[in-house]
Structure formats: structure tokens, C-alpha cells
Amino acid sequence: MLTRMPKPAASMPSAAAAILAAIRAVPRGQVAGYGTIARRAGLPGRARLVARVLSGNTDRELPWHRILRSDGRIAFPPDSPAFAEQCLRLRADGVEVRNGRVRLPREDSLDAAVWSPR
After folding, report:
1. I need a surface site. Which of 11, 23, 25, 69 has the fewest CB within 10 A?
2. Exposed e or buried b for every residue in 62-86, given b needs 16+ CB within 10 A?
3. What is the pLDDT of residues 23-60, one digit of tens each?
4. What does the radius of gyration of the chain's CA atoms come to, in whole angstroms?
């Protein structure tokens, strides 16, 4: 049986820094999915790492509210204070939130161009 080797601990700080930089680059009025942030940080397939980095974030200036699930839903439970806070912040940014969901921008990739609905 093959076992996966864990990522070296030394790479985690640089990965976290890349993720935080990608989050900071999302402009006001726009949103991105966890997977998109992972790709922009050079970490394709590491959407869960993005969520983990965000959960440990202490930077009050980080625009964490602009990061959503891949289907545009807010990741917090709908009856939670964090859900209400994210909705409030997104609306303050000029983003329309309907039923806890936001329309995500189309991905600029060959797969998205070929397989997304017209």
C-alpha cells in the first residue's frame, strides 16, 4: 500500500503567504472560489488548504468575505453570525447576495470555455 508523504513543513508558510496574497488581490466588488484562490496562489487542487488558512487568519484587513464555495454559496451555516457578517460585508462591497449565494465570475480557462453552458 502506498502512503502519501506529507508536505514539508517549510513549504506551508510560503503556501499560506501565497494564498493570503491571492485573497488580498481580489478587488472590492468581486468574489472568487476557494479553488480559484488556490490556483492563483500556484496550488491547484488545494482549495481545502485555502479554507484552512482562512480559518486561522487573524488579519482584520484581509478581505476574507470575498471567498466562497465553488458554486457561489457562503460556506458558513445560514443561521450563524459569520454567515450574516459575510453577507453584510459582501453587500457593502456592492456584491449581490441572494439566499446565501453569489454569482461567481466565469473561469478563464480552456475547460471553462469548452464545457460551460452558453
Report:
1. 11
2. ebbbbbbbeebebeeeeeeeeeeeb
3. 999 999 999 999 999 999 999 999 999 999 999 999 99
4. 15
Task: Specify whether domain 12-108 bears CATH 1.10.10.10.
Answer: yes
d(CA 23, CA 34): 9
**And the C-alpha cell for 109?**
480557462
Q: DSSP per residue over 6-49, as a string?
A: PPPTTHHHHHHHHHHHHHHTS-TT--EEHHHHHHHTT-TT-HHH
Cell representation of residue 82: 459569520
Q: Among candidates 62, 69, 66, which has minimal Cα distance to 24?
A: 62
- Per the listing, cell 464545457 goes with 115
Q: What percentage of the chain has pLDDT greater than the value 70?
A: 80
Name the residue ranges covered by the structural domains of the chain. Answer: 12-108
